[in-house]
Amino acid sequence: MAFFTNEFLTDRREEWLKSIIGVGIKADGKWYEGKIEKKAIENGCVIVDATFPDIEDMDANIQATRLIDKKGKQCAYQEKNFKKTHQQNLWVRTSIPIQEE
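The structure assignment produced for this chain is given below.
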């Protein structure tokens, strides 16, 4: 039996979604700001899709992603480990589940 109501959790997801205003990617040890293309709630998760125009034309080792809240604080961080070539664009989806089990 769930403790929180679906309505309460839906409201909390909306609050989280509104509070995320920035996204970043760490490439070769340097942070780059991304462009948020979409923010949504899907299947109980807060979804943030972003592109990174500043690194489109470079080869890079991608090391981490992060989300920034409206207070300018890092609110989510995830390590990554993959290579991107100058021929590839970069699109990142961050999915944060806000669910009661």
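Interim note for the steering committee: The two ends are 9 Å apart (CA to CA). The chain has one domain: 6-97.
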